[in-house]
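Tutorial, part two.
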Amino acid sequence: MMTSLFSIFEPSSSFLSLNLNWLSTFLGFLFIPIFFWVSPSRWVLLWSKIISTLHIEFKTILGPSNFGLSLLFVSLFSFIIFNNALGLLPYIFTSSSHLTMTLTLALPLWLSFISFGWLNHTQHMLAHLVPQGTPGILMPFMVLIETISNIIRPGTLAIRLAANMIAGHLLLTLLGNMGPFIPMKLLTLLIMAQILLLMLESAVAIIQSYVFAILSTLYASEVN
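Running the prediction step on this input gives:
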């Protein structure tokens, strides 16, 4: 039972036991041609509205001079939400439920922010370690706390995204495995529960994509 439960997170495929399931990470790129249709659909217009709103929000946080950086975080949001949403479909591997994937996104971003900040704005970064108005006796502790807080940022970003994706998929799998063992009278309730949980997971997929992108944007704004 435990093996079959966690088999949905196994990247290995049945073809020569190769990790081909990671290729599902790039399925989101198949949607790109849709945005170049002569007559865009309502879904494309809705997505364009979401992207433009996020771009304005990220540009407000980063400042008007960081136009390219804002596009980077909009692209990051799009990449994560496509992976999260496609992972809700049957037989599609959810790469964002693995720390390998989420850390690959979070760690390079964090390293680039920290390196840029300490090399170009050293005094600004030092000032961030001691909040304004901190009593002198507490300053060493605040420096330690702020340093630890900065170091664990990529881990918290990665674990938050992966844990939320894993939790929802496990619940859906557990409910699905109960189907053959419950009476017919309760089967309708089980299906309704799965539909509600799937709606919740759809919301979580969107929210976690936004949280990952907005926190990355806030971390980048601290080093400007």
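The chain has a mean pLDDT of 83. In part three we will examine how such features are distributed along the chain.
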